[in-house]
Amino acid sequence: MWEPNSSHVGKEKSNLTQGEECGSVSVAFPLTMMITGVVGNALAILLVCRSYGKKANERKRPFLLCIGSLALTDLSGQLLTSPIVVAVYLSGRQWSRVDPSGRLCAFFGLCMTLFGLCPLLIAGAMAIERMLAIRTPHWYSSHMKTRATKSVLLCVWVGVLAFATLPLAGAGQYALQWPGTWCFISAGESHVAGNTFFATTFASVGLAALCVTFACNLITIKTLVARCKAKSAALKPSRQWERITAETMIQLMGIMCVLFACWGPLLVIMLKMISSHTSVEHCKRSSVIQSTELQKECNYFLTAVRLASLNQILDPWVYLLLRKILLRKVCQVANAVSSCSKDGQKGDPIILEPEIRQTEA
Asked: Transmembrane residues, as ranges (predicted)?
């Protein structure tokens, strides 16, 4: 197991200084991320639990289950991984002090894989659920039951957990990553049995989930806009549909932007490393890290992982809390300058149509 800053403290420490400065941050950074993530996801879970028990929200329960599962998954990932990172930073970023046996590294890598891939697949499932609720409301009402949603979520968790344990069975490897504060899949190291398959599958499934989410959300937006136009031509009081469409479009676009910004860089970098057979091993050697280009590669990979971790913090706000607190106000401001809704009263409450009632938590 690689030990940053451990055995060759003298001459090599000075050689590593520049690279470590690029990749090191204060312990306040992971600590702040952990606190923010725990508070946001815990608040989202409380709101979902309160809404789930109401009889008026019976048709929303599949969607509430998805949101609650996403928040619970993100919360679990924060609670299991962040304390380890904080402990490593407090020990001077020397992983061997926290994990002398190396077993904690395998556990950390498993958590990174499990709580990284699950939210992507759950987000894809939620995008499909929303698309079905909007495009086929009658089929959705008769077929989309709570039991079916629970089954899908259970399959996601069990399937990803089974996949994440492959390195423990010898297919792939979890290794300490630059700058020595976290463990993850050893992308690009083809000499390890099954590692190329494992890393490629992780990145490919993640990108596929992003594409499914993107496509389904675009279809949902297109359907809402078309239905809004149809109701505008047929019904006089169309401002409710216009406002609902605007709110939903802002939320879906926010979801797509956050997912792609947080996960896109990491998944693309992993595939690039696999195709070029490069790994973060060169980041661990002081004689190599002096190269400017290699420093950039190491720090790009670290930044990509931090962006992916940021997704756990942003998820509850994008899916639930932002809509509850801010989204309505944003739409009121947008409606004030929109020619489509000049005559509408911004303060009127919204009464949702039955076919999209389940899209709002």
From this structure: 27-50, 62-86, 106-128, 152-176, 196-221, 249-271
Enumerate the domain spans of the chain.
25-341+349-359
Tell me the pLDDT band of 315, cut-offs 50, 70 and 90: confident
pLDDT for 99: 87
Residue closest to 262 by CA, chosen among 306, 231, 293: 306
Asked if omega into 179 is within 30° of 0 (cis), the reply is yes
CATH of span 25-341+349-359: 1.20.1070.10
Distance between CA atoms of 97 and 108, rounded to whole angstroms? 15
CA atoms within 13 A on the CB side of 70: 29
User: What token pair was written down for 192?
Assistant: 């390890």
Q: Report the distance separating Cα 119 and Cα 117, nearest Å.
A: 6
* pLDDT for 142: 78
Give the tokens for residue 41.
Answer: 């996801």
Q: What is the DSSP letter of 339?
A: G
How far the first Cα of the chain sits from its last, in Å, is: 46
Question: What does the buried/exposed string (b/e) look like for 98-114 if buried means 16 or more CB atoms within 10 Å of the residue's CB?
Answer: bbeeeebbbbbbbbbbb
Find the mean pLDDT for residues 303-307.
Answer: 88
Helix ranges, the chain (H): 11-23, 28-52, 61-90, 95-98, 103-135, 137-143, 146-164, 195-234, 239-276, 286-289, 292-316, 322, 328-336
Q: What's the pLDDT score for residue 96?
A: 86
Whether the Cβ atoms of residue 52 and residue 104 lie closer than 8 Å to each other: no
In this prediction, residues 210-236 reach a mean pLDDT of 80
- The residues pairing with 177 across neighbouring beta strands, listed in sequence order, are 182
Q: What is the largest CA-CA distance in the chain?
A: 79
